[in-house]
Design brief:
single chain, alpha/beta, 21% strand
Length: 320
């Protein structure tokens, strides 16, 4: 009987509560990246009723300007292009990163939307990758960062401050587009060029040397730093010379939309934020048609991609 009463007492004893302590703190949310605040707008999303242009990809097996370096390139032809008159042109460095409709930049979709709404002219997009020779022993392999194995000519092509890359565009790439039957305006006011990082300084460099060919520049997180040195006029010159060049030379007919992030790179080549601020100050001082937008981002495409539609409307505002 005593055993039965003891067991009954145990059974009736309330179990300890394991409910959450109302005073206990919930796990801290995962901190957001500084770049998470920059998101694509509706201008970068496919919209119903908007005609879609065609994107075609090609390969260039070799180049006169950069012999031994094959490359991939692509064209965007807007639906509104009918060949009745020459189209405007916009060139993008690191091109295939811009030409995808599902990538970070989504340039074809942005072009579709803005051309349809007449917020930019009928414009052919020319997307060019830097020269690259795959590793013959492992042509489809990638390194630890997911980059294809092989030899890239990107820094030589993009970070050099000579006229060579502009020459490559004018004498090789644009004629190839025209050879496919597409009419491109010769008016520099109808031509723009864009890029990010080393592609950003490359875009400005091409327009600087050939403002008779390119009058509009969209540069993001531009590498206006000492990445590569070149012998020019007996002096060593790197990308950091551009603020001085802008101040020392007559103002050129170039319109520039420039983006940078305050948490961009700082390394042995220099400070990207400081270099871009110096560049912006020189352009302003010299009276260039220029916009400078500095956010909090790091060295990536997010802020620039968000700004792309706004930049295109501003760059093309007087051409329809």
């Amino acid at each position: 009987m005593r055993l039965l009463l003891a067991l009954l007492a145990v059974a009736l004893t309330p179990l300890p509560s394991f409910a959450a302590d109302p005073k206990a703190k919930a796990p801290a949310p995962k901190p957001k990246s500084l770049d998470d605040q920059y998101v694509l707008t509706a201008d970068s999303q496919e919209q119903p009723g908007v005609p879609k242009g065609e994107v075609m990809e090609f390969e260039l097996p070799d180049s006169k300007a950069f012999p031994g370096y094959p490359r991939k390139w692509a064209l965007y032809i807007p639906k509104q292009y009918d060949g009745a008159k020459p189209a405007c042109l916009m060139v993008f460095q690191d091109g295939l990163g811009y030409s995808s409709r599902t990538g970070a930049w989504r340039v074809p979709t942005v072009f579709d939307n803005l051309i349809h709404r007449k917020q930019m002219p009928v414009t052919i997009g020319l997307f060019i990758n830097p020269g690259f020779v795959p590793d013959a022993k492992n042509p489809k392999g990638k390194d630890a960062k997911g980059r294809p194995l092989g030899k890239s000519n990107r820094s030589f092509e993009y970070d050099s401050v000579t006229p060579l890359y502009a020459q490559f565009l004018i004498e090789e790439m644009i004629p190839m587009v025209e050879a496919k039957g597409y009419k491109i305006s010769k008016d520099p006011a109808h031509r723009a060029i864009a890029g990010a990082s080393s592609g950003g300084i490359c875009a400005f460099n091409a327009a600087w040397h050939r403002p008779d060919q390119f009058s509009k520049v969209f540069t993001t997180i531009g590498s206006f730093t000492k990445i590569r040195w070149n012998i020019s006029g007996g002096k060593e010159t790197g990308g950091d010379v551009y603020p001085d060049w802008v101040r020392q030379n007559p103002r050129k007919n170039i319109r520039v939309y420039q983006q940078e992030g305050s948490n961009d790179l700082l390394n042995e080549h220099g400070s990207w934020p400081e270099a871009n601020r110096k560049m912006a100050a020189a352009l302003k001082e010299k009276g260039y048609d220029h916009v400078y937008v500095e956010g909090e981002g790091t060295h990536n495409s997010k802020h620039g991609a968000m700004l792309l539609p706004e930049a295109l409307r501003w760059l093309w505002r007087d051409v329809r």
